[in-house]
Amino acid sequence: MKQGDLVVRNSYGGDVLFRIESFRHAAAVLKGTDYRLLADSPIDDLSIVRDPEVTNATKQVRVRVSESMQRMVQHQQRQQQAHKIELAERFNVHHNQSYFEVPGKVLHLDGDGNYMKKSMQLYAQMRVPAYGVHANEAQMPELLYRLLPQVKPDIVVITGHDGVLKNRPKEEIYNLSSYKNSQNFVNAVQVAREYEKTRDGLIIVAGACQSHFEALLHAGANFASSPGRILIHALDPVYIAIKASYTSVRETINLVEVINGTISGVDGVGGIETLGRHRIGLPRPKVQMSQPVRI
């Protein structure tokens, strides 16, 4: 057994697929391949997975990811059709007339380099302008302080690894000191909200697995994990950011639709009513605009 091997924990019934990050004495430090989970395990409790695609945990996750992707694509297709109809009705523009779209720009800070790469690939696939930075969770408040005025995003994603610390009594579940990184995420949210005080001016998506949902919302996040203190999928924050990027500035992001559209569901992510950050323009510009646009 070596660093980089794919493994499951026997005592947990092999419910989550991990990659071995490092070793500490007789234990292995593990990172979830699909879930934002950082864990440790005795080496003798681990089994190596040769083909991850045949495990039940991976199969189930792949199905949910595929369904989530389909919902995102369908949402964009419906929105594009609605724009054509609206332009024809409101502005007497022929439905074949080219308009252009300005999706909301995303600044994504991630405590995991692999998840950062997956997230940026998905933003590119869905044609969302995004700027990503891999950073330790403790560094995120200072990074945001510097990056927000430079990037000028419409949406900020603050995520990485988190979790409730072991052997904490139930009555300590709402204490920030009971979490690996929730305090760091709260500090980062506070910096972002100080930069832009209105929740519609800057949409903040914050948290990871089992994060302190209530503290993140109180700090100023629009969407946060995890109401049920469960594991969230690595791409759940990205899904919400894409939904915000492609929801019109004249419409409220559909809370039920966006939460049910995530892979983790209502126990994994929650939020408050928020206006989208997507704009359309007419006619199509003859020169390239400084803000990325979809034409």
From TrEMBL:
Keywords: Hydrolase, Protease. The keyword Protease applies. One of its GO terms (biological process) is proteolysis. It holds the Pfam family Peptidase_U57. InterPro entries: Peptidase_U57. GO terms for molecular function: peptidase activity. This is Sporulation-specific protease YabG. It comes from Paenibacillus abyssi.
